[in-house]
Amino acid sequence: MINKKQLLENQLFQNRYIKPNISWYFSHLNGKRGIARIFKVPYAALMKKFYLKKYFEKRVLEGKVDIPYLELVLTTRCTLRCESCNNLMQYFSPSNQYTCTLEGIIESLELLLSKVDSIARVRIIGGEPLLFKDLPQLIDYLDTQKKILTFDILTNATIDFKEDLILKFKKSRKARKISISDYRKSPNLKIPLKQESILSKLKQNNIAFSYNTIDYWYDIDKIYKRGRSKEDIIKNYYNCQMSCVSLMTSEGLENKQLAPKGAVFVCPISSSLSRLKGLEEFDGDFLNLEDSKERFFEFYSQDFYKSCDYCRDFSQPIKKIPIAIQTDKVLKLEKY
Ligand code: SF4
Ligand code: SF4
């Protein structure tokens, strides 16, 4: 049984769980839909200073699980093949791709929602999530879940938004925004972007969006098992501390006994690695959705993940590279 008072003294748990929950509620209260727009006092700032930390810590002591952020990985298929994709799409071939079914992702979410008390922010990702044919139905489902507070979607803008999807976002009470990655500066993009059409539809329908234009990416380096010691793997995690906890169903896995109905992983690299090498290879890294509520707290205070051995050394400076360099090759999980 986990000692929750000790858990609250754990700095990693504070950083990964308590602080992101506080930040989300602060930005929610302070945002366009927040109460701050009604009151003249800086309501959100006062809440943050005097209340939110105590509030979330009390909920932990009561055994309530509030997930601050969760990425739903719908597919590892993408319309692009970026050599430095953070979600490892460049390592998937047509024969080992993952795409969940609507029923499968809903089954995983139902199980997750039966264990947790809230999820502040869900982000729908891929690969390219618009390749998931039942996206409008998934939005309907997310919209009706009381414990899910908001969601958004990340797209590379290579697939135009159909009418039904636009309508779903327009009517949704929980959709925060559409996040569009701007890949115009890619040196060798092979397919046309549909940004103009998408942006015009979003503006016409008054749907919130963010348009993420950046000048360079960071090189994630090759992904392969480095064979570091346990201490060095833990150090690598502390130097990275990526906050993108991601959920995948276990559909299509040869051996799914370790998480028959899906799992939550520390980051999308970890979830993709479990697809490429099997769940057994990463036993202990993920949260089996059939686990007890206690395991959720444990997961957020865990600092050893076998997948962190596959990443570059996060203590070293990172190289800047052009954005979204495309590759034709399926990369292998080995040193080149
Ligand atoms: S667009 Fe590029 S970075 Fe984004 S998911 Fe596809 S391959 Fe990865
Ligand atoms: S696998 Fe570990 S080191 Fe790599 S990105 Fe994820 S959390 Fe960071």
From TrEMBL:
Sample GO molecular function, one term: metal ion binding
Gene3D superfamilies listed in its UniProt record: Aldolase class I
Record keywords, A-Z: Iron, Iron-sulfur, Metal-binding, S-adenosyl-L-methionine
Presence of keyword Nucleotide-binding: no
Source domain of life: Bacteria
Xref: InterPro entries: Aldolase_TIM (IPR013785), Radical_SAM_PqqE_MftC-like (IPR050377), rSAM (IPR007197), rSAM_sf (IPR058240)
A Pfam family per the record: Radical_SAM
Residues covered by the Radical SAM core domain: 73-177
Name of the molecule in the record: Radical SAM protein
Key word Iron present: yes
Cofactor: [4Fe-4S] cluster
